[in-house]
Amino acid sequence: MEETTRYDLIVIGSGPAGEKGAAQAALLGKRVALIEKGQHLGGAAANTGTLPSKTLRETALFLSGFQQRELYGMDACLRDKATVQDFLRRERRVAETERQRIAGSIGSHGIELIRGAASFVDAHTVKVAGESERVLRGDIVLVATGSRPWHPPVFPWGQPDIYDSDTILNLERIPQSLIVTGGGVIGCEYACLFATLGVKVTVIEARDELLAFLDRDLSRALKERMVALGIVFRMPDEIENVARDDEGEEVGWRCALRYGGSIVADTILIAAGRSGNTESLNLAAAGLEVGKRGLLTVNESFQTAVPSIYGAGDVVGFPSLASASMEQARLAMCHAFESNFTGHLAPILPYGIYTIPEASSAGETEQSAKEKGLDIVCGRASFAANARGQIIGEQFGFIKLVFRRDDMRLIGVHIIGESASELVHIGLTAMLAEQGAELFVRTCYNYPTLSEAYKYATYDALKRRSC
Ligand SMILES: Cc1cc2nc3c(=O)[nH]c(=O)nc-3n(C[C@H](O)[C@H](O)[C@H](O)COP(=O)(O)OP(=O)(O)OC[C@H]3O[C@@H](n4cnc5c(N)ncnc54)[C@H](O)[C@@H]3O)c2cc1C
Ligand SMILES: NC(=O)c1ccc[n+]([C@@H]2O[C@H](COP(=O)([O-])OP(=O)(O)OC[C@H]3O[C@@H](n4cnc5c(N)ncnc54)[C@H](O)[C@@H]3O)[C@@H](O)[C@H]2O)c1
Fold first, then answer.
1. Residues in contact with ligand 1 (CB, 6 Å cut-off)
2. pTM assigned to the model
3. Structural domains present in the chain
4. Hey, whose CA ends up nearest to atom 39 of ligand 2?
């Protein structure tokens, strides 16, 4: 065993939280060690989650000729000839480029990268089991170990053609039919991209509402568009039993459903939620307990019950987004090293959901505002009535704004359609700047653009307010 080395900060995990936390501390002049046990840098965001799934979405849109079909009625479909290698090639290239970027960032910030699995010896001492064992001492430790897919026990995990969001990237052939268990964000995103490729997709979701955290108009519109893609929903429902059926008309995995009947598909994707990666950290040695589903409890500064140990990213649970994970880690490190560079997590976080079509949201929904007893007025503008929307063939998208009635301050923005996850930032910035209708009325937008819909949704709200 090597002798102990001392650092201002030890970071465990090189995903978005670990990378940005380490960089923030290095920028504050601290000596930082970053430990990663995986083969690749970048965690779920670079290797199995965010970037891979978004790249596969673009590939599916290209191979299926989806946009050309909608716009020109022209079948530019390549999917019949496409191999699984065609499907996965770009994903691999994007992931590799991101890993190189992360390695460059670690190097340029002077962060020491240590390969191996970290576990606590005590609150300030971390052991790394790698090619050789090392012991590090840190004034501060940031736990950024992320999460992994959770598998309901009913699935015979390890059998062929049963995947989760990690292993789906090792797909051996494009399925004919797919059962997606869990209509959460991962389930909906993958359901859309496979349906676009012509796969017969069934989503089984235990709740009765799809993505219930979204504004109801958005979640209904999204479900409608997913049904139009050919996706079948069984909700609320759950799989009670899974068994091979090689005798029936359709060969594959037969899933018996709680509320009656069964369905068969050649492939299953489990997308039923995630668990925190804490089990091998020996947190008890540091004086910490683990919560439900392996999650770490932290305060508003992302400090655990042991003040020198911080947690950020998926390991602390909600909202489990790459975007939020980075911000949490930066904030945690500014708190740990008493820097006032950033003191608070933004009070409103955006969601970008990369379904087909895309959906994005920030702030209060109409329903959440009413539950809080707020007096509100909403305005809508459809992309079909927008010049840019016409040009790009965006027939179903819309923007919905939620204003406080008395002063017309914006408190929520909800968008479905092309570029929704980009457009949402206009509304998000307005909310953070405590602005509202007056700003959208006054702004001159480029024409033709989808952004201009902000003005028309505002006019709609003003009209409703005066009625
Ligand atoms: C399919 C999918 C799609 C997603 N899409 C989006 C999206 O569009 N937008 C978005 O914002 N978010 C998205 N997310 C969520 C996003 O990927 C996560 O929120 C984000 O990766 C969490 O970052 P993290 O740094 O907390 O953890 P991770 O990215 O999971 O990284 C944790 C790292 O810690 C390492 N590690 C674990 N234990 C140890 C140990 N003991 N020692 C050393 N290293 C260890 C792991 O190997 C890993 O590299 C998606 C997730 C999935 C699964
Ligand atoms: N675009 C994005 O921002 C994005 C994309 C993907 C993932 N993520 C993040 O990753 C996290 C995990 O995503 P997820 O979709 O796996 O989890 P989730 O918790 O969001 O959704 C899981 C869904 O599965 C359902 N479910 C659970 N067990 C079931 C069962 N036995 N049968 C039927 N349905 C069942 C739940 O009701 C829930 O709707 C999310 O919190 C999300 O923030 C974000």
1. 12-18, 35-38, 43-45, 49-50, 53-54, 117-118, 144-147, 165, 186, 277, 280-281, 313-315, 320-323, 325, 352, 354
2. 0.95
3. 5-149+275-336 (3.50.50.60), 162-272 (3.50.50.60), 357-466 (3.30.390.30)
4. 184
